[in-house]
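Reviewer 2 asked us to include a model.

Predict the structure of this chain.
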Amino acid sequence: MAGRRRLRNRQGAVGLAMASPALILLLLFFVVPVLLGFALAFTNARLVSPNPPRFVGLDNFIRAFTADPVFFDSLRNTAVFAIVVVPVQSGLALLLAVLVNQRLKGSTLFRVVYFIPVVTSIVVVSILWKFMYRDDGLINSMIDTVTFGAWNGTDWLNNQSTALPAIIVLSIWQAVGFHMVIWLSGLQTIPEELYEAARVDGASPWRQFTQVTWPGLRPTMIFILITITIDALRLFVQIDVMTQGGPINATSTLVYHAVRKGFREQEVGYGAALSLIFFVMVLAIAALQRWLTRNKD
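Predicted model (structure tokens):
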């Protein structure tokens, strides 16, 4: 018994030693920043200041909801982006997955083509689309050619009414391939016998989809909805590269506003408070989604 206990202790020590680098990195780059951000949210800390941080209680949160109009603009833009992107991107990805899953000639090529934007850096993609959206860019040139000069387009990213929709189109195009692959993996887990039985019963293709495909995709659907929602709510890179929140805060989002306040304007305490508001909002939305899509059986 003593020898076996020593062996278990030795194995536990070896396991802890092997896991310690990952645990240390997790502690330093996740746990400590989260706790520090939570603490700073209740202070007036600045990035560079001769004065030490001072505890201000809920003042930062009160400021966000009563004295910061950009916060509400950012909240509205984030909500609009998520409300549009989540259903459109998930639906389009499902449509592409169903088409690619037909085992037609060339389907592998289409999978690669749709997935290329996913593996390309979002910074690079944003820079390319920024040039395309310019007044003399590719998109306006195409519109001018297709309409034979009847419509010359607009400066998409400098127009308040088109800046956010332009970023929405870019974001859907860039990420739809990833979620197509996720849907495709879900489709390929559905047994072919179920489709054969449905065809024997005379089910139409639409009825096969509603009675066989969609129920079989339920776990995949939950995963995709939650991941797309979280990705949509934390929109930052496209805004930072393409518009910097403009024009006139038409594309500012909660994450971008928090980063701008915390680092560019050096109000670390207020930026941490905005981040904490964002964290609570994402947590609540994810929990609501999980509850709405729960298995009622």
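The longest helix spans residues 2-40. The mean pLDDT is 87. We have added this to the supplementary material.
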